[in-house]
Write a structure and sequence with these properties.
Largest sheet of chain A: 6 strands, mixed
CATH class of chain B: Mainly Alpha
Low-confidence stretches of chain B: 297-302
Order of helices and strands of chain B: HHHHEEHHHHHHH
Strand content of chain B: under 5%
Largest interface: A-B, 29 and 20 residues
Structural class of chain A: alpha/beta
Shape of chain A: globular
Number of strands of chain A: 10
Mean pLDDT of chain A: 91
Shape of chain B: globular
Helix content of chain A: 40-55%
Mean pLDDT of chain B: 88
Largest sheet of chain B: 2 strands, antiparallel
Number of helices of chain B: 11
Distance between the termini of chain B: 69 Å
Oligomer: heterodimer
Helix content of chain B: over 70%
Strand order of the largest sheet of chain B: 1-2
Distance between the termini of chain A: 41 Å
Number of domains of chain B: 1
């Protein structure tokens, strides 16, 4: 469904992504793991059109979408939940969700359908439902993350790009959010590209994973195999080399 | 000798009179200031061509009335439309191609644009000062011993109507909310599918329309000529600064405050100081409360 071929992305002179290729099938959960600065966020931003790649190709459902503006890409069906949530702080929870459906309003979709989807998001995150008129800036970190995901879902994406959804959140909240991500696949067959520092948690819910190092993909495997992979364990899952050898 | 209190009574009458006339000038400043604020919030630049939109509104209305002999309402609507078109073209030609330039160079471009528009207006309409007829009679009305022209009431009424409409647009329609979202967090806005370029264009359209309306409703009172935009633009800018660059209540109060102070100063001290007062207030605000009178000390603006 989503196919990335040999893209190169630069920040000014800095070569941030080097010949990255990856793909995502419908309904699949794929995770990108790698150290800080490996280029995980840059991949998502290249897909979203925020930092368009200089060359290479991004194909979505057979259409070449690199060079599209961020709003066109959302319209195509790729939504990003950005790092650090980035909810509209001075807007109510409901307004945030409405804004998530901005393109659907513009395309004159029925208001009642959009309302229904807002209620669906509240069904997905009951915690938000009691706070619908509250300003988003006053929510807790976990609630803001839920809102950010809900806002992205309002555009009815086929692919959801999630950037560090667990950042700064309590383990219980992370569990809840990951549960919702898994449910998305079951209920809406939304494909998810998940960027995570918490590699272990990400690999547990993912089907496949890519390992990135300094802007390159160095490994692509089933999530289960990556969890077992000794190099990955040592580098990203926090297991000591000694521990691995002694076992 | 019995104290009749005449002295203080005339004084208070005078103050009331000045305040009343200041109120309607202030309303004009608010409208212009809101135009500044809308563009500032969506692009981060101060559009110094804002005053020229005000001038175009008044001058074009005069032109349509006197030369094409259009009826009043048609002339006004047409000049609002044309001024809006000028604003949109200005954004397309001067601002959009340079979206990645730093704000300072864009501000300088708006100054250039304003000189250009003023020059074209001078060539087209000449250097004369014109007036357009008042919207209704010229008979002054007496309110609590102070007199007020019906046009002043028109100005106040229309301004408040527009401000209310503006408020409705920004808080209760999806496009208005999208524009605000864009000014709060541009990246997040584009990630939910809001076209930032489109929002900037709309903000120029709204600002130029507001400017032209201000120019039209004030023209019967203050006259209009090709260069009224400079002073009115700067006063509107003052109003926006006092209001902390908000496109809402802050700037409205900023404008009204400015209008009243100006009128009181001109009446009670000397009319020569009229313009100076606005700029003294501007400087004081910039020195003491650069975030504006009505804004909480800079909240987070990511």
């Amino acid at each position: 469904m989503l196919r990335v071929k040999n893209i190169n992305t630069y920040y000014g002179q800095v070569h941030a992504l080097k010949n990255i290729s990856l793909h995502l099938r419908a309904g699949e959960i794929v995770t990108l793991i790698g150290a800080n600065g490996a280029g995980k966020t840059t991949i998502l931003n290249s897909l979203s059109g925020i930092t368009p790649p200089r060359d290479g190709e991004i194909q979505f459902e057979g259409v070449t979408v690199n060079g599209f503006s961020p709003d066109r890409i959302v319209e195509m069906g790729i939504s990003q939940v950005p790092e650090g949530r980035q909810v509209f702080k001075d807007f109510s929870v409901e307004d945030n969700l409405e804004l998530g459906a901005y393109l659907r309003y513009r395309n004159k979709e029925k208001k009642s359908d959009i309302r229904k989807d807002i209620e669906d998001v509240f069904g997905l995150f009951p915690q938000l439902s009691g706070r619908r008129r509250q300003m988003a800036g006053t929510l807790s970190g976990g609630e803001q993350q839920m809102l950010a995901i809900g806002r992205a879902l309002m555009a009815k994406p086929k692919v959801l790009l999630l950037d560090e959804p667990s950042m700064g959140l309590a383990p219980l909240v992370v569990q809840e959010i990951f549960k919702v991500i898994v449910n998305l696949r079951v209920k809406r067959s939304t494909a998810v590209l998940l960027v995570e520092q918490n590699a272990r948690a990400a690999l547990k819910i993912a089907d496949r994973g890519y390992v990135l190092e300094t802007g390159k993909v160095i490994l692509e495997e089933n999530a289960r195999d990556l969890l077992e992979n000794k190099d990955v364990q040592r580098a990203y899952l926090g297991r000591d080399k000694k521990e691995i050898w002694e076992r | 000798m019995p104290n009749c209190g005449c002295e203080t009574e005339t004084m208070s009458h005078q103050i009331l009179q000045y305040a009343l006339s200041g109120l309607s000038t202030g309303a004009i400043y608010s409208l212009i200031g809101i135009g500044f604020a809308i563009i500032y919030n969506s692009t981060g630049i101060i559009n110094f061509a804002q005053g020229e939109f005000v001038m175009l509104g008044g001058m074009m209305t005069y032109f349509f009335l006197s030369l094409l002999r259009l009826p009043m309402l048609a002339a006004m609507c047409l000049s609002i439309l044309l001024t809006t078109a000028v604003g949109v073209v200005f954004e397309r030609l001067a601002i959009r191609p340079l979206r990645n330039a730093n704000p300072l160079s864009l501000v300088i471009i708006t100054i250039g644009g304003s000189i250009l528009i003023r020059g074209i207006a001078m060539l087209q309409f000449g250097k004369d000062t014109h007036s357009i007829p008042a919207f209704s009679s010229n008979e002054p009305l007496v309110i609590a011993d102070a007199t007020i022209l019906p046009q002043n009431l028109w100005i106040l009424g229309i301004t408040f109507l527009i401000i209310a409409a503006n408020r409705y647009f920004f808080y209760h329609t999806i496009n208005g909310k999208a524009m605000r979202a864009c000014s709060h967090n541009r990246r997040a806005a584009s990630l939910v599918g809001i076209g930032v370029k489109r929002m900037v264009l709309i903000s120029f359209a709204i600002s130029s329309a507001l400017g032209s309306i201000a120019g039209i409703i004030t023209a019967p009172l203050t006259m209009t000529s090709y260069d009224v935009g400079i002073m009115l633009g700067l006063k509107g800018f003052c109003a926006a600064i006092i209001g902390g660059m908000s496109s809402g209540v802050g700037t409205v109060f900023g404008g009204l405050l400015l209008g009243i102070f100006e009128s009181l100063g001109a009446g009670l001290i000397s009319s020569g100081y009229k313009d100076a007062i606005a700029f003294i207030i501007l400087l004081l605000i910039l020195f003491i409360r650069p975030q504006g009178l009505f804004r909480k000390a800079e909240t987070e603006r990511v």
